[in-house]
Amino acid sequence: MNADGRTRLNQTPEWTALAKHREELADTHLRDLFAADPARGTGYTLRVGDLYIDYSKHLVTDETLRLLRELAAATDVFGLRDAMFCGEKINVTENRAVLHTALRAPRDAVIEVDGENVVPAVHAVLDRMSDFADRVRSGEWTGHTGKRIKNVINIGIGGSDLGPAMAYEVLRSFTDRALTVRFVSNVDGADLHEATRDLDPAETLFIIASKTFTTIETITNATSARQWLLAALGDEAAVAKHFVALSTNAEKVAEFGIDTANMFEFWDWVGGRYSYDSAIGLSLMIAIGPDRFREMLDGFRIVDDHFRTAPAEANVPLLLGLLGIWYGNFHDAQSHAVLPYSHYLSKFTAYLQQLDMESNGKSVARDGRPVEWQTGPVVWGTPGTNGQHAYYQLIHQGTKLIPADFIGFAEPVAELSEELKAQHDLLMANFFAQTQALAFGKTAEEVRAEGVPEELVAHKTFQGNRPTTTILARELTPSVLGQLIALYEHKVFVQGAVWNIDSFDQWGVELGKVLAKRVEPALTEGADVPGLDASTKALVAAYRELRGRS
Ligand SMILES: O=P(O)(O)OC[C@H]1O[C@](O)(CO)[C@@H](O)[C@@H]1O
Asked: CA spacing 20 to 30 A to 317: which of 137, 222, 235, 401?
């Protein structure tokens, strides 16, 4: 029993029933499931907004889905969902509400935190962002010397980088191509160097994105960026025209030297990895314009409303979350691949890595006791066709079960030439062929029938039975991007709720930060750091020697 009165997850009858069911299905192949139900290809599908979700190629039956839904009911996933949408403080270790859904709520919605409706503030910031973005895009907002802003550099890390950087790539064809928009995150000086080396400081706007405004990588890069600017423009007053801040921490913003009039605010109830639809999206909004940004928010809202209201049988985030639990907890799958068949989604999986792994990479339950069940998977993947010529071999014929999401679009991006658009069918033929091959494989008999010599038959056989979800949409628009992100946000939520972990804290990143601060003087000054272990001590000495410092 948990301290909160709940039976431990792995001791519930629902969990035990799933484990037993898994044994019963051990010898069932997807080929059998499709043979037994000719309607499976259309029956095991759902729609949400513009997304068509095919989950027929999963190792599940109606009974599996029923048992999974019972697990969700027993762990009160929908109860926690309602608490989240209402602004209850479900981030228990930080005593915070979790309200990224308020960032896309309509103007007239009422969502309260500590008795205060947060929606008017959300829209006030959105309006200020829109006004600022319009002024930069139109050339009305100029740099210190009066030159038009042609370059926008977002400096941030983690949730203050990955979201806008990903979305900028995804929506590139909607961006103002006259603007150069870059993202600097790494404290390796090379990142800022490459981002600024060919730019005119007088035409460059820096957006310093940091929820806390204390993150060392971001503050270090921002300080270097200010030096780069001032070295060229020579006047402290230039900072006001070339630096804006996105933060929850006005005091630290002012301390850094950015006028808080140039600060776009968000709130502690927005987690970093859930923040790119807040002020953190300013660089994206400048790139695509406020109207497109709002279309994206509308897309998020479509899936929020669906998650909040759809019954369990038709609730897509619930389904996707439960399927992940089925593989992670009952098939020992360790990882989950996300494989987009769109060049524009090249940073999509990197974004999801933070969303999923920082949220659900936990081993302590909400009541403080260690979990006795697997939690979040390793999330990985790159655009599909490139992956086909790299790691798909392992997915097809390796010894590990790797459930995968395939994401594709019926239409190529509108601005491609007719010639390049013609390549789209080939791209999508690969998309459909892969999930088919993964599910159904190729039997030894089929291989033999092709005249393959006996000694090669085993090598050329594909076991199949590799589960995939296919997510298909007509085209990649700002709204569809919002829908996709909200879908994954809520999927991650569902899994955290079932595992009874706090998906909204991230204590696991703290220790490394503290140790880096402690080790730095050993590198720079050769200072003796008390308690440094023998391995790290020797590595520091080797580093100093290589840098000619010892
Ligand atoms: O926006 P901040 O406060 O600079 O934090 C950046 C990132 O650092 C983390 O706290 C830890 O990596 C993330 O959760 C967050 O997105």
From this structure: 401
Collapsed DSSP state (helix, strand, coil) of residue 50: coil
Q: Please give the number of the atom of ligand 1 that sits closest to the Cα of 162.
A: 16
Catalytic residue at 358? yes
Ligand 1 centre from 364 Cα, in Å?
21
E strands, 266-403, are: 335-340, 378-380
Active site residue 513: yes
Distance CA 423, CA 426 (A): 5
Q: Tell me, rounded to whole angstroms, the distance of Cα 80 from its chain centroid.
A: 21
Q: Biggest alpha carbon distance in the chain?
A: 78
Q: What tens digit of pLDDT does each residue of 159-174 get?
A: 999 999 999 999 999 9
Which of the following is catalytic: 20, 193, 513, 517? 513
How far apart are the C-alpha atoms of 325 and 65, rounded to whole Å? 11
Q: End-to-end CA distance of the chain, in Å?
A: 57
pLDDT confidence of 2, banded at 50, 70, 90? low
pLDDT of residue 9 exceeding 80, the answer is yes
| Atom nearest to 218 CA in ligand 1 | 4
Nearest CA to ligand 1 atom 8: 158
Minimum CA distance residue for ligand 1 atom 4: 210
Active site includes 217?
no
Q: Which residues line ligand 1 (CB under 6 A)?
A: 157-160, 210-212, 215, 218, 272-273, 358, 506, 509
Q: What is the CA radius of gyration of the chain?
A: 25
The C-alpha atoms of residue 190 and residue 304 are separated, in whole angstroms, by: 39
Sort strands 204-209 and 151-155 into parallel, antiparallel or unpaired: parallel
Q: Say which DSSP state 391 is in.
A: T
Instruction: Give yes or no for residue 549 having a pLDDT over 80.
Output: yes
CA–centroid distance, 218 to ligand 1, in Å, is 10
Residues 257-308 have pLDDT tens digits of: 999 999 999 999 999 999 999 999 999 999 999 999 999 999 999 999 999 9
- What is the number of the ligand 1 atom nearest to the C-alpha of 273? 16
**Residue 540 structure tokens:** 């520091």
Give me the pLDDT at residue 355, please: 98
